[in-house]
Design a protein that fits this description.
The complex is a heterodimer.
Chain A lengths: L10 H14 L4 E5 L2 H9 L10 E5 L4 H4 L2 H11 L4 E5 L13 H6 L3 E4 L3 H10 L4 E6 L6 H13 L5 E5 L5 H9 L6 E4 L1 H7 L5 H7 L2 E4 L4 H16 L5 E3 L11 H10 E8 L3 E10 L26 H5 L23 H4 L4 H8 L2
Helix pairs in contact in A: 1-11, 2-15, 7-12
Chain B lengths: L13 H15 L2 H4 L13 E9 L5 E2 L2 E2 H14 L4 E12 L4 H18 L2 E10 L7 E11 L17 E4 L5 H9 L17 H9 L4 E6 L4 H10 L5 E5 L7 H10 L12 E5 L4 H9 L8 E7 L6 E4 L5 E4 L12
Parallel strand pairs in B: 4-5, 9-12
Antiparallel strand pairs in B: 1-6, 2-3, 4-6, 7-10, 7-11, 8-10, 9-11, 12-13
Helix pairs in contact in B: 1-4, 3-4
The chains are: A alpha/beta, B alpha+beta.
Chain lengths: 359, 337
């Protein structure tokens, strides 16, 4: 099974990095992680308890479920009510609240909603049910988008005319720029590990250069994260923001060219809505002309008017302006059993991570 | 053709009788059951009695390390045992799906009989219903059980005597059952050599209690895993819990699957693990007794009751950090027991 976990959870190595961070860190600093996996790992391993109080770790818009619009869920709900239609999705999305319903409730009232772990399982469902329309809900950043792209390529090759995509795929750099444009005080980004294996570290160069902000790509183990934090603090203290990699066993400058090619072949950029950030140009992925026939957006359905919950501050939390504890709904009206905001639904959401590990 | 369960097997008529006699009574036979009266009539000594019930709907019904039958016996035996009671007898009800192969039912019944013998409990009454195909999934089992409770162990289920300094023990590795079930479902094409820890813990628990160990609390860490038991134990209490992650045993394969799928093993179900709170003086003795039992070889002291952070369970993480252990919200995995 998996090896090389213990090496990256070694108490002594962790202790050395903590010591080094304490030695060089003089000024208060805000570091933001923009990956749900990092949010979880930081809380799960208790990393904040190891750092000096003036190193402030912020959770950014790194959970795909959390940043997606409520309209996306409403759209999926509307599609699920069509006859002979199967909605196929990753499990996280099932319980995300829409304006008046969610996929879980639709499933209970008879809609065919199925959870898969890969788009390839969704293709299989399409092959087995030629008389039904199979709609895959594509969600995630550059990490999951290539999987969807390859799924779409296969659907085309196999001439599956009953397989469709409703895409909420997004790309990370526009959000990282928008946060700084919005005036969020960020001195360094703990840049996402999985996204970067696909894109390479090169996608952060323009951002780092233009905004003078450090971007250090981290893995998901405690040693990776503390090394990344150390590198960011060092950059900050030495006033030389740069793109660096603290996750060299998986990430290089160029990334996974094959995956990038698949993305280019299938998708084009579009403007997209982000919770907390609003509409960002060229931040979402939609099927291009070649694949347009497979776009589930073509179905004529009536989508109910989007209704956002009052009092939910997911938007501010996703921008790192507030922590979950600042939300008056957190832990009372909004819990993982009965979530109000998307940040509480996804297990990678900042609110869910706080609720579980830091309440 | 293989014999299948028919709707008639639940009609109360001739087929029902055949099923009872050729299957249930044959394998579960004991003096009380063999009378086949409407109610089991039991001789009970005076004193306290513990009574519990549980239903089992696990999918798949056969999995490495056990099956739904073994689980149905061990689950109820364990619920009685962790209350400090000595399990006496069980009831057992089957809900069967029309078309379910008789041979599989017999396999389950034999497994139940074997586990009951091992746990030294009798199955004294039962019921069978058959529903139309598609109205239940193969077989669902309910078992209820009664046990005798010595008044001096009455405090164990509520944990009234717990105080700072007490030690927290567990009888072995965590998350085996939940991950064995997950791996046994072919949905994810994961092939891992993981066996469920499904087992009756009454003998292990009895040894500890009879040695005079001052046990202040016990709970089996089933759905919601160890984390849920620990978080509940601390909730609204004047004391806190401190758990040391490095003392918690997790099997290598279990850890691998948990990592791949993003499960926290502390929240994954067990079916043969008990968490005990024992007085500080007796902790060493309790550990020794548990480690000498087949089901407690890997027992460890995983933490203690502390004065600090009342109402909360804290985990000292393997890397030297700290975080809260909270209850499981929602379900990590459906139909694991």
């Amino acid at each position: 099974m998996i090896k090389f976990i213990d090496e990256y959870r070694d108490r002594e190595i962790v202790g050395e990095f903590v010591e080094r961070i304490r030695n060089i860190s003089k000024k208060p600093v805000n570091l933001m992680e923009v990956c749900g996996g990092h949010t979880m790992a930081i809380q799960k391993f208790g990393i904040p308890s190891l750092l000096p109080a003036h190193i402030n770790l912020l959770s950014g818009p790194g959970c795909p479920v959390c940043v997606s619009s409520r309209q996306f869920i409403d759209h999926a709900v509307a599609l699920s009510r069509l006859n002979d239609t199967v909605i196929v999705t990753f499990g996280d999305l099932i319980r995300v609240p829409g304006s008046s319903s969610n996929l879980d409730k639709e499933k209970a009232s008879g809609a065919d909603v199925r959870i898969v772990y890969s788009i390839l399982d969704a293709l299989q469902i399409a092959q087995q049910n030629p008389d039904k329309k199979i709609i895959f809900l594509g969600i995630g950043f550059e990490t999951t988008a290539p999987g969807t792209a390859i799924g779409m390529q296969q659907a085309k090759q196999k001439k599956l005319n009953n397989f469709f995509l409703l895409s909420s795929h997004k790309i990370m750099p526009p959000a990282m720029k928008a946060l700084i444009d919005e005036g969020v005080n960020i001195s360094g980004y703990i840049a996402p590990g999985h996204v970067s294996t696909i894109t390479g570290s090169k996608i952060y160069e323009e951002l780092s250069e233009k905004y003078k902000v450090g971007c250090v790509i981290s893995g998901f183990e405690p040693v990776d994260l503390l090394k990344a934090i150390y590198m960011l603090v060092r950059q900050f203290e030495e006033e030389r923001p740069a793109v660096e990699i603290a996750y060299k066993r998986a990430v290089n400058r160029e990334g996974n060219i094959k995956a990038q090619k698949a993305l280019e072949e299938v998708f084009i950029l579009k403007e997209d809505w982000w919770r907390g950030l609003g509409v960002l140009p060229e931040s979402g992925l939609q099927l291009n002309e070649k694949y347009r026939a497979l776009d589930a957006g073509n179905f004529q359905v009536e989508i109910e008017p989007t209704r956002e919950d009052k009092g939910c501050i997911c938007g501010e939390i996703l921008k790192g302006l507030n922590t979950p504890k600042d939300c008056k709904l957190f832990g009372t009206a909004c819990t993982p059993q009965d979530p109000v905001g998307a940040c509480m639904v996804s297990h990678e959401g900042a609110c869910a991570a706080w609720y579980r590990y830091n309440r | 053709m293989d014999k299948k369960i028919l709707l008639g097997h639940g009609s109360g008529g001739k087929l029902t009788r055949e099923l009872i006699e050729n299957l249930f009574v044959k394998h579960f036979s004991n003096e009380v059951l063999d009378r086949q009266s409407d109610s089991a009539v039991l001789d009970v000594p005076s004193g306290k009695m513990a009574f519990t019930t549980d239903s089992f709907v696990v999918d798949p019904i056969f999995f490495p390390g056990g099956d739904i039958g073994k689980l149905a016996i061990a689950g109820t035996v364990n619920d009685l045992s962790v209350s400090g009671a000595k399990p006496l007898c069980l009831s057992c009800s089957f809900i069967l799906e029309e078309g379910f192969p008789l041979a599989e039912l017999e396999k389950i019944v034999i497994s139940m009989a074997k586990e009951a013998r091992k746990a030294e409990v009798s199955i004294v009454t039962g019921d069978t219903k058959v529903v139309n195909k598609g109205k239940c999934d193969k077989v669902f089992i309910n078992t209820s059980g009664v046990g005798l409770l010595n008044a001096s162990f009455q405090h164990i289920s509520t944990g009234d005597y717990i105080q700072p300094g007490d030690k927290i023990l567990v009888n072995g590795s965590l998350a085996d059952h939940g991950m064995a079930i997950l791996a046994a479902r072919n949905e994810m094409n994961l092939h891992a050599d993981i066996e469920s820890d499904c087992a009756s813990l009454n003998h292990l628990i009895r040894k500890v209690l009879e040695a005079g160990v001052h046990v202040k609390f016990m709970r089996d860490a089933t759905r919601g895993g160890a984390a849920t038991v620990l978080a509940e134990l601390a909730e609204n209490k004047p004391f806190g819990l401190e758990i040391t992650e490095s003392k918690i045993k997790i099997g290598e394969n279990v850890r691998g699957i948990c990592e791949i799928l993003g499960f926290d093993p502390l929240y994954v179900a067990n079916e043969g693990k008990v968490i005990l709170v024992v007085s500080e003086e007796d902790a060493g003795k309790a550990l020794e007794i548990m480690q000498s039992d087949e089901l407690g070889k890997q027992a460890t002291i995983i933490g203690e009751i502390v004065n600090q952070h009342p109402g909360k369970a804290w985990l000292n993480t393997g890397i030297g950090g700290k975080r809260i252990i909270d209850m499981l919200a929602g379900e990590q995995l459906p139909r694991i027991c």
